[in-house]
Amino acid sequence: MSLAYILTVVLTLPGLLLLFGGIAKLWHRRPVLGSLQGLLGLVLVCAGIIVLLVGMNLYTYHRFTQETPVASVSFEMLAPQQFHVTLAANGDAPQLLRLHGDEWQLDVRLIKWQGMATIFGADPVYRMDRLSGRYRQTEQEVRELRTIYDLGVEHGLDLWSVASKYKTWLPWVDAIYGSAVYMPMADKASYTVTMASTGLVVRPTNDAAQQAVKAWH
Question: CB neighbours (10 Å) of residue 121?
Answer without folding.
Answer: 9
